[in-house]
Each structure stands twice: as C-alpha cells, then as structure tokens.
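Protein Record: Sequence and Backbone Structure Tokens
======================================================
Tokens: labelled as protein backbone structure tokens, with as many entries as the chain has residues.
Task: work out the structure tokens from the sequence, keeping to the layout shown below.
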Amino acid sequence: MTTDPLLLMGEVDAATSRLLRTAASFDAADLAAASLLPGWTRGHVLAHLARNADGFVNLLTAARTGEALPMYASLEARTADIEAGSSRPPAAHLDDLRRTADLFSEAVAAMPAEAWAATVQARKGPWPAALLVWGRLREIEVHHLDLAADYRAADWSETFAHRLLREAASHHATGPTPPSVVLRLDGNGHEVVIGERFGAPIVAGPAPDLAAWLIGRADGAPLSVTPDGPLPTPPEWI
C-alpha cells in the first residue's frame, strides 16, 4: 500500500463506498442494534465515523493554514456529538456520512504539497499530516467491522491488512506490557516479531485475520498456535 496520501485516496474512496452501501441497508431497528463496541449501537458507530471525518478535516485545515485547530473541541464534545447523532433516522445517518466524506475529500484536495510535512494535534497527541489519509482509511475499515453487518476482515485488501498488522505490532511492542509473540503470515513465510522471539508462541494465519485479532476485533478462531495452547491476549489497541 502506498504511503503517498494522495494516491491512498483511491483506497479511502473505495472503503467509503463499501461503508455507504452497508449504511444504506440499515433500517431504524438495525441502527438501534448493538455493534461490536461495548455500549455502542450501530448508530453510535456511524455517528462517530461522520464526526471523525469532521475531525480529520480540522487537522487537514490546521496543516494547510498553520492554525492550531484540534481534531475535536474536547473529548466531552466528541462524546456528546456521537451520543446526539446516534439515534437519528437512517436517511440522516446516510446523508451525514456522505456529506462529511465529501468534505474530507475536498480538504485533501486543497492540501499544497508542503503542507503534508506539517505536524498536527490529533486526539492522542502530535501526528504527521502525511498520515491523516491513512488514519481515515483505518477508521473506516475497522469501524465497518464494528457494525457487525456481514463485513469481515477477509474483505480488507491484503495491503491494508499488512499495514494495519505492522502498525498494531509496533504499537504493542512499545507499550507498557509488550507481549512476546511471533506472527507468521500464511503463504509467504513472513514473520512479525513482538517482544522476545525466544520461547514465544507462533501465531499463524492470513494477514487480515492476524490483524483483526491483534487489534481486538476478532477472536482469532482461524489462527493456529505453536506450541498448542490458547491464543495470547493482545494488549488494548488504540
């Protein structure tokens, strides 16, 4: 997967189209049903995705103008906006998702080349502007899974799954309690090592299933463990 934010927009557009198709299939009862995220309905997930697009527009604007715009006004405002939008009718959710996706695309298109070198203040700290398009793609693809609506990690592209897997592995490796595990990708023998290799269990399987398990979005049922035993429990992901 390319690291060029402009070239990566093709992946964002495709992921957004898939998300919109899923959102368009929901009626009011579907939106009120539980998502995979504790305490959130599907309506909460869709409201979050729309507000997340607004947040990324703020960060792109900050990178372009030099203005100190935060992603969200505050964590309390973020939570309140998601809660307020969660119970809207299906058509309102769909319109909001489309509108904010268009605003995100426009904000990316407005970025001059030099603005991608800026650093912006994301929700959890400073972030390179060059990673904002990847960040939006990650939000769409992971939260599409959270909708519990027949979208699976296997529907991710191999390139997306590989990049997410490496990012999650790096996140866990630098955390306060890094696990020791060797992740072995089916088909190519490639391995990603977290922590100490010696004595660590080997968890093997397709890249999408490994990535979904590593970020806590799947139970790892398709994965194998050597030596035999239970899958380790990954630390909390972002």
